[in-house]
Here is the input.
Amino acid sequence: MAFEFRLPDIGEGVAEGEIVQWFVKEGETIREDQTLVSVLTDKANVEIPSPKSGRVAKIHAAVGEKVKVGGLLVTLVTASGSGASAAAPVPPVPVPATSVGPGVPAHHPAPSPPDSTATPSPVPPPASPGRVLASPYLRRLAAEKGIDLTRIRGSGPGGRIVESDLVAGMPSADAVAVLHPPAAEVAGAEPPIPAPRPSTVPAIAPGPGPAIPASEIRERIAIRGVRRVIAEHMAEATHRAAHYTYVEEIDASELVRLRDRMAKHVEKQGTRLSYLPFIIKAVVAGLKEHPRLNATMDDANQELVVRSAFHIGIAAAAPEGLIVPVVRNADQKSVSRLAREIQDLAERGKAGKLTRHELTGSTFTITSLGALGGILATPILNYPEVAILGVHKIQRRPVYRADGSVGPADLMNLSISLDHRVLDGIEGAQFLAAVKGYLEDPHQLFAELA
Here is the structure.
């Protein structure tokens, strides 16, 4: 029997994915649940397993090609009787219907016209007792959390377990928070995170490349995978937002002393303490005073969605390009916990092991090159966010003090880029002034009143 396997609904509003790697070849015989293909969605790779055993008759999508949910991936030839028809049922493809929140469409299958003679469409059979259908990633995650997958009812095609099923089956509220923190963990309801939408940047028809002598071409590099996602995000951000940048100089002398003292204790636990956790705490304090910067832009409805939770994106370099892991609910975490989480996200990011959930949903982003931070940069917004902070290196330089004396100080620049469509210059200046105050006297970050 010929079985057409299509890209299933990966969840979380994903509409399409880019083929990163095929783990099988045409003509190869494979088993059920064997990994077929790796698909890239928002810089996170998702491994798709085979729903059936059989022989790979034809691969329909090449590496680097984008496939929409429901698009044909591979045709398998299965044993006689293993399928009811020559074509497998197509997994449901989300179709926008009505809005359930700012930027979040409700998805329902498109209704079929009434036809009394039509044959009902086949549906995937439920999984047999004791048979677990789940991706290798979810199996790994379940093992880490001590979850018995045989006790979880899958809601995906054919009874396959998807991430939301796993979260629902986790044994404690703390474990749930590890994967999907509740949308409202602070006072007040948190608006839903806008679902990703296909880019609406006007397409420009490609023209002929410049006439370059072959002898002068050293290499042609295909823009694919994470690099293509980055290119699309950058184009979207610069096309939509009206960027402007404001810069402030910070006397970080007291911050340097405080960090050096705290590092002796934190690093005993095997965690490196950088300046970033302190900067995150100062940023959150500044966002509480100026909440309009902790927001995302809903261009479809022309609304600024001010957020009540503080999910801070940390731009970081990875082998395939820039990624932005998210520290969720940063306002509820200590300096040492922030340091541990940043280190964990950075290490798994470099290894390509972050999930899509860990790379999406931020409300404000910080970008830093650490010791290579330079003097000044103008960061591009992490759209649909409306503000991003650039952190530059700390340098010891002589400064004039208020009493007229000259002495050494540890100075650094902070640059913030904002969306001028919704944030005026005064708001950026006031926010950065607040952050400057917290960093120049960092002890006040730990002197919160009950």
The first helix runs from residue 136 to 145.
